[in-house]
Structures are given as structure tokens and as C-alpha cells.
Amino acid sequence: MQNIKQYISQNKDRFLKELIELLKIPSISADSAFSQDVLDTAEAVKKSLEKAGCDLVEIHETDGYPIVYGEKLIDPNLPTVLVYGHYDVQPPDPVDLWNSPPFEPIIKKTELHPDGAIFARGACDDKGQMYMHVKALEFMVNTDQLPCNVKFMIEGEEEVGSNNLSTYVSLNKEKLKNDIILISDTGMIANDVPSITTGLRGLSYVEVEVTGPNRDLHSGLYGGAVANPINILAKMIASLHDGNNHITIPGFYDTVQELSDEERAEMAKAPFSLEAYQKALDIDSDYGEKGYTTNERNSIRPTLDVNGIWGGYIGEGAKTVIASKAYAKISMRLVPNQDWREITELFKQHFEAIAPKGVKVKVKPHHGGQGYVTPIDTDGYQAASKAYETTFGKKPIPQRSGGSIPIVSLFEKELDSKTILMGFGLDSDAIHSPNEHFGVWNYLKGIETIPYFFQYFTEMKKSC
Ligand code: BES
Ligand code: MN
Ligand code: MN
């Protein structure tokens, strides 16, 4: 790649300015009050792809938010890279905890980002990482170095479960046909420890409702004599883990793919300091499933976590009341080869079975998806590895992540192609949290590394 460093240093202010403009639009897919902003963001992404050099860019309608499709096809005999990303973002709540407004991006230095980081909702997940690909395309087109065909598919419903994407993908198999899928929507270990994500966890997300008496009751007149749905819900949730922090749902672990001792030993080589981890989170101990390390617990092992719990009186002061209903939202992170529909069903059966007399229980499945692992002996992985080696000066470490991008397993099934997860964020970038940010260095490093992936992947495909 000629002049990539020079091109970036000459254009970096504009690259930042353009991303900042995109980050100003609050494309919150979960909240219908922002639907026009989500649509405006799709338009902005479309324009950016046209400007960057795509020959065709279309907004494809779905039953939900649209998909921005772009392409630059230079030669049918050359390989095709399909870039996937998402332009929607998580709600910024709790807004009070942001040090600057979530949709007024600012650049500030941090300990881990001495060159500055862009603070805004979506900076890292995923507008910033998606936009690296738009700028990498601009570079390759402007300097006449695009080595292969490229397609873009940027969606607007990732943060709410990509419900309309599987229909879209199965209806557009020909259009989306590719040799490799490239996604930057994950992270890496540290700026001086590059890594490539080789696995994602699956997900089953459910909501539960426990109903006791038919109305809220005076907790003195009725307390002790009727089942209190909040007490019961707390008990039921507590029973979902045993003393070793194993999940107690019968059959939950039946299909879990166990790693060999060699694989676990390989994983343990990745640099990690439990002390630094605890310090960063201000916790005085690790916690989790017995027999596994922190890095295993958050990547190769399944989990069950309450994400929200409510019921009864939570306003100011005290109100003596036994609520009629209690609720919780629960996520289960799954690993290969757990099937998310099967796990959802096992959860439902178990949760209904453990409900004591005196309450009624409802389990409402939300969304889910399969986990993913990718081998490293493929052209795609090797090309990515070489690209990182070129720009970071170090071979990247393959690493399984704990997060989920359910569409990845679907791509493999529907389009029969592998996905390469080239993420440039850090775990500490606070995605989904207040003060989300993305390092300026990481943003520019991504723009620098992506064109090398295109080059090496095309070379490898040509030589076989
Ligand atoms: N980009 C994240 C997933 C991610 C982040 C994977 C970091 C690996 C490392 C994605 O936008 C996301 O938030 N996914 C959701 C699942 C989705 C179905 C709502 C998640 O993991 O909670
Ligand atoms: Mn994301
Ligand atoms: Mn996300």
C-alpha cells in the first residue's frame, strides 16, 4: 500500500470531522422517538459511501430500519469482500452519568488514549469502527489501489437484535455473494497487544413476570400471609446458580463445547492482569464459575445474568406495599454448540417449574442468536493477521470474545462465508455505558490496517 501513512496524516482532521458529524445524529434504534434520526443516519451513511467511491449505493427497505447497501465491483474474476457494520446505537441512558452530552462528540485525552479519544454514543460501537471502512475505501479508490471487489451492508437494527436481517439476507443471497465478510464491531486486547476476534458468544434474552395477588396490597395488613412476587422472584433468580456458580437449569450445559487442555493453555498465554482488571472496575475480587479463569468465564463459558429487575415502589421515601407483580430481564450468553432456541425453551420450562404455589409466572422470549468460532488456518484469518503485523509491527493474538453479533453465524449459514472480526476498540472504551469513546489512534490505525487486509486477501486468493 503506497502512501497510506501519508494519506492518513494529510486527511486525519477531515476523517475526524466527518465521524463527529455522523455521531451527532442520535440513531437510537430501541427508542421510536428517534426513528427519524435513525433514517437520517442511513442517508448520511449512503452519502458517505457514494463520496468514498462506491459505484452503486442503495437504501434497502425492510420491515424495520433500512439497510444501506453499497458496492464497487471492479472485476468479476477478483475476490469480493463484504463489509458489515451497523449505524444504530444503544440508548445513552443513564444520561446523568455522561461527562459531556452523548450526541455532542468531543475529543479528550485519557490514560489509555494519550492521543485523545472521541467521546460520544456510538463512537466505538459501531459508527467509528464502521466508518474506518468507508475511509479505507476512500483511500484505496483515490490512490488507485483497490485490489478487489467490495460490497457494504450497513444495518440499523443491530442493537435491537437484527430482527429483519435474516429475511433480507436470504432474499438477497446473490447480491450479497462474497468470498469473505469483514466486520469491525469488536475489540482488541490493548493498543500494543493487537488481537483478532475468533469467537463470539450466542445469546438468549428473556423477560420474566411474576404475579402474586391481583392488586398491590398494604404490607402490614397482608404481609407474611401472601406470596410477595418480589421476594419470590429474588429467590427464583438466586436459585439459578449453585454454590459453584454453575447454572442450575437442567440440560443447560449438555451441548457446550468444552475446550481441550491444550486450547485452554494456549488461551492462558494472552497477556492479562487480574489485578489491573479489578482495579479498573474497583472490585476487590473476581467472581464466577468455579474451575475457570476470568478470561475463560467471559468468553468460552455460558452465563446467565439479570440485566434489569423491577417491581413495587421505587419512588422517593417509603411506601409500605406488596406489589402485585415483579419483573426481570435476563440474558444468557451462550457458547458453541448451544442452540439459543433450545436454551430459551429450557429456561422457560425450568423457570415455570420452580415457581412456588401462590404466584403465576410468565416467560417472554425476546431475541437471540448463535455463537460463532472461526478457524485461524484460513486465507481470511491469515490475511488479517499479516495486515496487523504490517501496521502494528506485531503478530496479533487470536482471541474469543464474550460479546454477541448474532448475524455472523447466520451469514455462515445463508451465504456460506466466513467472517473476519477486525475490531479496534478496547474493553475500556465503555460501549453501551456512559462516556463511550474510541481512541483517535485506534480509529486511524483501523483505517491504515484495513487496506492491507484487502491487499493480502486478494494476493492469497489469486495464488490458489
Ligand atoms: N458490537 C457489539 C458486540 C461486541 C462488542 C462483540 C465487543 C464483541 C466485542 C454489538 O453491537 C452488541 O452490542 N451486541 C449485543 C447483542 C445484540 C443482539 C443486541 C450484545 O453483545 O449484547
Ligand atoms: Mn456493535
Ligand atoms: Mn452494541
UniProtKB/TrEMBL annotation:
What Pfam families does the entry give?
Answer: M20_dimer, Peptidase_M20
Question: Which Gene Ontology BP terms does the record give?
Answer: proteolysis
GO function terms (MF aspect): metal ion binding; peptidase activity
> Is Repeat among this UniProt entry's keywords?
no
Q: Where is the Peptidase M20 dimerisation domain?
A: 199-358
Q: Which InterPro entries match?
A: Bact_exopeptidase_dim_dom (IPR036264), Cyt/Met_Dipeptidase (IPR051458), Peptidase_M20 (IPR002933), Peptidase_M20_dimer (IPR011650)
Name of this chain's protein: Dipeptidase
NCBIfam families under this entry?
A: PRK07907.1 (NF005914), PRK08201.1 (NF006053), PRK09104.1 (NF006579)
Write the record's keywords in alphabetical order, separated by commas: Hydrolase, Metal-binding, Protease
